Amino acid sequence: MSASPHDLLNGRLHMQATVFAFDGFVVCARGRIDRMEKSTLESMRRTPDD
Predict the structure, then answer these.
(1) Distance between CA atoms of residues 21 and 14, nearest Å
(2) pTM value?
(3) Is 8 exposed, middle or buried (0-12, 13-18, 19+ CB in 10 A)?
(4) Model confidence over 5-42: pLDDT tens digits?
(5) What is the rounded distance in angstroms from the CA atom of residue 21 to the CA atom of residue 19?
(6) Which end of the chain has the smaller Cβ count within 10 Å, N or C?
(7) Angle 17-28-10 (CA atoms, 0-180°, nearest 5)?
(8) Residue 50 pLDDT > 70, yes or no?
(9) Which one, of 9, 39, 44, lies nearest residue 31 by Cα?
(10) Which letter, b or e, does each residue of 12-50 get, where b requires 16 or more Cβ atoms within 10 Å of its Cβ?
């Protein structure tokens, strides 16, 4: 069973697409976590003033 160049190219493109999608997901999740941490810090900062 030897893979044709076409199959290898398809496999590589599929892997790159998967990695790209995963990177996008990680970046999105990281941004969301940063926003959550900032809002949490702000609410913690605000509480003593009240």
Answers:
(1) 11
(2) 0.51
(3) exposed
(4) 889 889 999 999 999 999 999 999 999 999 999 999 88
(5) 5
(6) N
(7) 0
(8) no
(9) 39
(10) eeeeeeeeeeeeeeeeeeeeeeeeeeeeeeeeeeeeeee
Quick count: other Cβ atoms within 10 Å of Cβ 3? 10
Task: List the beta strands (DSSP E) in the chain.
Answer: none
Start-to-end CA distance of the chain, whole Å, equals 72
Distance CA 15, CA 37 (A): 32
Amino acid sitting at position 18 = T
Q: Give the SS3 label for residue 29.
A: helix
Domain map (residue ranges) of the chain: 23-50
